[in-house]
Amino acid sequence: MTRVAVLKGGRSLERQVSLKSGARVAEALRRLGHEVTELDVGAGLVAALQAASPDLAFIALHGRDGEDGTVQELLEVLGIPYTGSRVSACILASDKVLAKHAMRDAGIPTPEFFAFNEAAFRGLGVAQALPAISARLAFPIVVKPARQGSALGIKFARDERGLPAALIAAFSYDSKVLLERYVPGRELAVSVLVEGGVPRALPVVEAVPQADSFYDFESRYEIGRTRFICPAELEPEVGARIQSLALEAFGLLGCSVFARVDLMLDADGAPQVLEVNPIPGLTETSLLPQAADAAGVGFDELVARIVAAAV
């Protein structure tokens, strides 16, 4: 038996999802025979961890503080082993701009993009370059906060008139935004799980929103809003290419233990990597548990494997 502290909740906009992930993980850990302490992460975290004295911290935090390397750095200071990727990988993967630059430099296909912070808009007149950016990317343009997950703050600018509002909305979530070429096609995800020190790509999941044209925050976490197909119906060589790209992105960003790679498959059948999520959701509608189940790995076993890889 191991003493495990499950870190959940926190201050991010993905708090409610994190609470669900953490509660589900805690239940599985108890069924596996571990002694579990559930911690809603806040100002008293250090004291709570010192009081619990865990052998391992299971990080079920999403977004700010959890996926950006902050809590990982703190756990390293305290000498507490933890699940998931290390500090540098979390910093890199959680910032879509840094991650996309790394992927582009490495030759991993990712939609064309430009990124600027608020200071550049105010001090460098970036707004005056929007026509040139629009000409390069072509409408519709996807506007994203650089450091948010679960599709939070993502807007579509369908024409020049919609671009300012999309930028304002994205800036309300982050001080840096990403303007990205829209890739119409199929929305796919590949979860990666390290087994015996070797990253393994799980079956591809396809997300098909039932009512909305966009797989947004509500579609991800409200049962019935999205139909999930796992394994996705793909030609074998296309599926293999998608899994290979996911493993390449996972390794490039330095991820470890587990992660989820989101991709688009365009109309020509070419995959493009959108982002890498270092701490994917573990709720009932989350894609990692669905992919694991399709691979014959139940939720309790998935949690056990994550713990074993971390230890």
User: Quick one: biggest sheet?
Assistant: 6 strands, antiparallel
Mean pLDDT: 91
Number of helices: 12
Query: Span from first to last CA?
Result: 13 Å
Low-confidence stretches: 215-221
Helix content, binned percent: 25-40%
Shape field: globular
CATH class of the largest domain: Alpha Beta
Please give the CATH architecture of the largest domain.
2-Layer Sandwich
| CATH fold node name of the largest domain | D-amino Acid Aminotransferase, Chain A, domain 1
Give the helix/strand class. Answer: alpha+beta
Give the beta-strand count. 13
Topology:
Elements: E1 3-8, H1 15-31, E2 35-40, H2 45-52, E3 56-59, H3 70-78, H4 87-94, H5 96-106, E4 113-117, H6 118-123, H7 130-137, E5 141-145, E6 155-157, H8 163-171, E7 176-181, E8 185-195, E9 198-201, E10 205-209, H9 217-221, E11 226-229, H10 236-252, E12 258-266, E13 271-277, H11 287-294, H12 299-310
Short description:
With 311 residues, the protein is α+β, with helices and mostly antiparallel strands.
Report on this structure:
- This protein is an alpha+beta fold.
- It has three domains: 80 residues, Rossmann fold; 144 residues, D-amino Acid Aminotransferase, Chain A, domain 1, CATH 3.30.470; 69 residues, ATP-grasp fold, A domain (Dna Ligase, domain 1), CATH 3.30.1490.
- The chain has twelve helices and 13 strands.
- The strands form three sheets. Strands 8, 9, 10, 11, 12 and 13 form a six-stranded antiparallel β-sheet that branches.
- It is globular and about 60 Å long.
